[in-house]
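Collaborator request, handled under Task 6.
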Amino acid sequence: MTETSGANAAHRVIGELLRSWGTAAIVGGGSPEFVVPLRHFGGGEISIFGSSAYAPNQFPEIATFVKRHNIALDAIVSETFTLDDGPEAFRVAADANTGKVVFRFD
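Structure tokens returned to the collaborator:
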């Protein structure tokens, strides 16, 4: 599983979503604190690690998952910025109080 929101609410349920011996990658770094109930680690033997990006070999799997589950990616994009608005875009993304922030290249 990969968690990309960086939101504490998502982190708190990781242990409930993983199967025993499951692994989660934390890619979203929106929150300065990482909060997961300790009971998830011992009871489920789960592993959680952090990463700053997806590995290139994961993109086909991600694209297949999005297509198979008919996920509307525009539904998770809450803010769109131009490159000129870069500083504001990074400020909004750093707050972790929004969905995905994307740049529009016109």
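The cover message to the collaborator said: "The chain is about 35% helix and 20% strand. The helical segments are 8-12, 14-17, 39-44, 59-68, 86-95. Please let us know whether this matches your experimental observations."
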